[in-house]
Hints:
- The chain is mainly β.
- Helix content is 0%, strand content 49%.
- It has no helices and 11 strands.
- The strands form 2 sheets. Strands 2, 4, 5, 6, 9, 10 and 11 form a 7-stranded mixed sheet that branches.
- A hairpin with a 6-residue loop joins strand 4 and strand 5.
- It starts with a strand and ends with a strand.
Amino acid sequence: QVQLVESGGGSVEAGGSLRLSCAASGFASSYYYVAWFRQAPGKEREGVASISIGGTTTYAESVKGRFTISKENAKNTWYLQMASLKPEDTAMYYCAAAARSWILSPLSYPYNYWGQGTQVTVSS
Length: 124
């Protein structure tokens, strides 16, 4: 059974940092393209960052230079390191995966597998 479980969310003041984790089970992470999405109340879901099987990364303009996506195949886990957090980063964050070697638009791709989400709240 394929499962993605996010963790690491929490409350932080503006300017602070958090690291989100996405642990996979039921499949080998080295064969999957993964992205982080977020959704704030009343807003559409937004692709934040993605990483290909080969390690190519893509970031939304709103987080470029502040967020870093990475993976650790040996642990079947992906990470989203978030720094210089802003109140507008407040949202539920989800990881998503697809068994694709390449995705043209990874921040808007309809991924097959999704986690349950982890809440990030940034106070001013």
